[in-house]
Amino acid sequence: MSVESIQNLVNDARGGGAALRIAGRSHWIDAGRPVAATRIAALASHTGIVDYVPGDLTITVRSGTTLREIADVTGAEGQWFPLDPFGSTDGSIGATVATGSFGPLAHRFGSVRDLALGVEFVGGDGKIVRGGGRVVKNVAGFDLVRLITGSWGTLGVITETTLRLYGAEVYPTTLVLTAPDGMARLAERIRDVLSAPATPYSVELVGAGVARNIGLAARTSLLVRIGGNAAAVASQKDAIARLGGVEAVEPDLWERFRLIDGEETAVVRISALPSRVTDVWGSAARALEPVDGALMHASAGLGIVRCIIPKSANHGVFADIIAAFADCTVIFERLPRNAWAALSPSVVADRLSQGVKKAFDPENILNPGILGPLM
Question: Which terminus of the chain, N or C, has less C-beta within 10 A?
Fold first, then answer.
């Protein structure tokens, strides 16, 4: 598939008034609000490396390229794209950018918004648009990269993206720390970890269910991922070990961790100030207590608590979460299809969002409804 064929696909949809459902490899096709489209524009065959200059620590790839392919190519040069969104590494970079996805590594390296330097996409008007650049220092002009990132394919079909790279993870080390009972003691434990003389890649609080699913003892625990050269890792490991209750485990548990969502689940992400993460954790645990099979984990340094709930759960639990966290940012990553209208009908009801959508996709043919209805 070429950029021209993608452009032709969009123009055909415009001419026939037929909306398009934009997809990468369709792993996340059930995420977001229902889309009012019968045609799927799948970019799984739009793959490959466009440009890679190891000395610049940047790589430009087509949107259907998988995260695994990027890891293989950059790893051969001793480099790394430090992004670990939830789901399989067979997911495409285009879908990752479009959904604004990220994982625990955002604690140290930031989200995809921080790692995407440039983007090319075909707008809903059929025009090819380019933003950003292929070098780290290129920050001039309107930030189209941040605009398109997380727009869920509603502004354009991403065809190419340039990514920031880092030196490959050396001496990867993961430590598991016991988590004490009681929110006050847990908050103190997290503060001790975050203030230790170390620069961890990830600091993740996992509930007993998540711990069991990734091969650990079924109890609430803190996972700390560190890396660097031998001296740096040894120093950081010693600093964390001094906190007590620490055990080293195989780092491959992070690959299992990325797959904890499973199938037929709803996912709710709650964000607050990092200083409030234990308060949010406690409230979320109480809200989920009656739900069989519910799982929880939190990125302690980011203030994000993520709740994984069976879709079969009573919809009242989602309403309870909204009510309990009125002063937090609540994002539904996945919901049962018939729950969206009542729980989260739109995130683009404001005039600015509506104006941006109409500027890039005036006929509303790209993923219509996935972020909410146009007025």
Answer: C
Residues in CB range of 294: below 8 A, 6 or more apart: 209, 288, 307, 308, 309, 310, 313
Tell me how far apart the alpha carbons of residues 284 and 296 are, in angstroms, rounded to a whole number: 8
Q: Return the axis-axis angle of helices 277-288 and 183-195, rounded to nearest 10°.
A: 140
Extract the tokens encoding 292.
């069989």
CA distance 323 to 320: 5
| Cα dist from 247 to 92, 148, 178, 297, whole Å | 34, 41, 9, 19
- Give the gyration radius of the chain's Cα atoms: 21
Q: Which tokens is 63 given?
A: 């949107």
Looking at the chain, the whole-number percentage of residues with pLDDT higher than 70 is 97
Average pLDDT estimate for 6-21: 88
Structural domains of the chain, with CATH: 3-167 (3.30.465.10)
pLDDT at 333: 92
pLDDT in tens, 66-113: 999 999 999 999 999 999 999 988 899 999 999 999 999 999 999 999
Collapsed DSSP state (helix, strand, coil) of residue 73: helix
Burial (CB < 10 A; 0-12, 13-18, 19+), residue 286, is exposed
